[in-house]
């Protein structure tokens, strides 16, 4: 214990922080059981191989541990990618980028919020299904490529026409970036969250999935119930009014996360 110093304390705190962040990510994706199993295996390996020093069993477990990193990467490839994207979007790291001369991407003015809210209100009344993703700090370029590139100015009428039931693009997601409708008919990752209420269909699962993987703001309009829902950072605000939607869209992403959440 005489060599235990401030670096060891920092080391322990960093490991605890990383484990906590990883646990939050796997909890959202519904793979908590696998994560707990891996932690239990690591604890068992430490006890047998290093504390009790059981040679035979320790040698067997050491073989598993030697290939364990590759198994973890395969099992948690989506969670690891999500963790790295979250890390890159962290405000502390963005500040460091600015400090060393980098430029942080600005989300721009919220002048486009009003036509989006009006379109969602009209589609809600007509029971027109919609899925709108608004880019924040993390780039959505990868998902834009899965749909039809538009790059048009945002207008209420254009949004309603894209999601009109006979439109060829109405089934996919619309991506909005830098005050433009960048693409429509886009394919999004589907959330595997088992706690999502049964009344939410594939459109809501796709919206929740992209909100888990990125910091995007997501709006869904239910085709069956005509209800508007808002999603951010893996959290759902269901059955909200147009006024509440406008309030959430005008808030910074981090501020919206701190407000009351109805479902996780």
From TrEMBL:
Q: Can you cite a GO biological process for this protein? A: cAMP biosynthetic process
Q: Does the keyword Signal apply?
A: no
Sorted alphabetically, which InterPro entries does this protein's record hold?
C-di-AMP_synthase (IPR014046), CdaA (IPR034701), CdaA_N (IPR045585), DisA (IPR050338), DNA_integrity_DisA_N_sf (IPR036888), DNA_integrity_scan_DisA_N (IPR003390)
**Main enzyme class:** transferase
List residues of the DAC domain: 77-242
Question: Which chain regions cross the lipid bilayer?
Answer: 6-26, 33-52, 58-76
Instruction: Name the chemical reaction catalysed here.
Output: 2 ATP = 3',3'-c-di-AMP + 2 diphosphate
**What GO terms are given for molecular function?**
adenylate cyclase activity; ATP binding; diadenylate cyclase activity
Q: What subunit structure does UniProt give?
A: Probably a homodimer.
> Of which family is this protein a member?
Belongs to the adenylate cyclase family. DacA/CdaA subfamily.
Q: Which NCBIfam families match?
A: diadenylate cyclase CdaA
Record's HAMAP family? DacA
- What job does the chain carry out? Catalyzes the condensation of 2 ATP molecules into cyclic di-AMP (c-di-AMP), a second messenger used to regulate differing processes in different bacteria.
This protein is called Diadenylate cyclase
**From what organism does this protein derive?**
Dysgonomonas alginatilytica
């Amino acid at each position: 214990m005489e060599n235990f110093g401030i670096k060891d304390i920092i080391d322990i705190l960093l490991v605890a922080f990383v484990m906590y962040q990883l646990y939050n990510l796997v909890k959202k994706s519904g793979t908590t059981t696998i994560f707990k199993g891996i932690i239990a295996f690591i604890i068992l390996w430490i006890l047998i191989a290093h504390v009790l020093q059981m040679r035979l069993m320790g040698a067997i477990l050491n073989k598993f541990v030697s290939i364990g990193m590759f198994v973890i990467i395969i099992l948690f490839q989506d969670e690891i990618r999500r963790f790295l994207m979250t890390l890159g979007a962290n405000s502390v790291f963005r500040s460091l980028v600015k400090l060393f001369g980098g430029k942080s991407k600005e989300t721009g003015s919220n002048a486009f919020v009003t036509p989006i809210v009006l379109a969602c209100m009209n589609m809600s009344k007509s029971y027109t299904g919609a899925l709108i993703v608004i880019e924040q700090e993390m780039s959505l370029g990868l998902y834009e490529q899965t749909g039809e590139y538009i790059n048009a100015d945002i207008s209420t009428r254009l949004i309603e026409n894209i999601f009109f039931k006979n439109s060829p693009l109405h089934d996919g997601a619309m991506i909005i970036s830098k005050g433009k409708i960048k693409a429509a008919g886009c394919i999004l990752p589907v959330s595997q969250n088992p706690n999502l209420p049964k009344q939410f269909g594939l459109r809501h699962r796709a919206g929740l999935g992209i909100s888990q993987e990125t910091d995007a703001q997501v709006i869904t309009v239910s085709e069956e119930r005509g209800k508007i829902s808002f999603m951010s950072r893996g959290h759902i605000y269901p059955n909200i009014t147009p006024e509440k939607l406008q309030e959430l869209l005008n808030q910074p992403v981090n501020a919206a996360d701190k407000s009351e959440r109805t479902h996780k």
